[in-house]
Amino acid sequence: MKRERDELFDDVIVQWELAINSLYKNKKVNVAFLANTSEHLHAHLIPRFGQDEFEKYEIVFKDPNPTGNYAPYPKKEIPLDILLTIKSDILSVIKKNIVFIR
User: Fold this and answer.
1) Integer distance in angstroms from the first to the last C-alpha of the chain?
2) What's the total number of domains in the chain?
3) With contact defined as beta carbons under 8 Å apart, do 52 and 66 qualify?
4) Cβ proximity of 60 and 50 under 8 Å
5) Which residue range forms the structural domain that includes residue 18?
6) pTM of the predicted protein model
7) Do 27 and 11 form a contact (C-beta atoms < 8 A)?
8) What pLDDT, in 10s, does the model give residues 54-92?
9) What is the rounded CA–CA span in Å between residue 76 and residue 79?
10) DSSP secondary structure code for residue 73 in this structure
11) For 8-54, where are the alpha helices, taking DSSP H only?
């Protein structure tokens, strides 16, 4: 369990954050882990953009509350092809720049 935790916090989140910052030039990242009412643990990895707007994939990224809680925020319907492009871009940056912190 400790090894998985260390890998998550020391490698996976760091690589994701480096890739997101490389692609989107965000100011910082919020990380939240939730279990809700089930035994399933999931993470929210939220890039924060401050006051600046950033446009990519025909989507305007703007932080609705740059000094506070991210939620609630306006939901966007993003077409599947754009979601798959975003996923591909993130994986491409991670594969090119993979650095193991430990």
Assistant:
1) 17
2) 1
3) no
4) no
5) 2-97
6) 0.71
7) no
8) 788 888 877 777 777 766 677 778 899 999 999 999 999
9) 10
10) -
11) 13-24
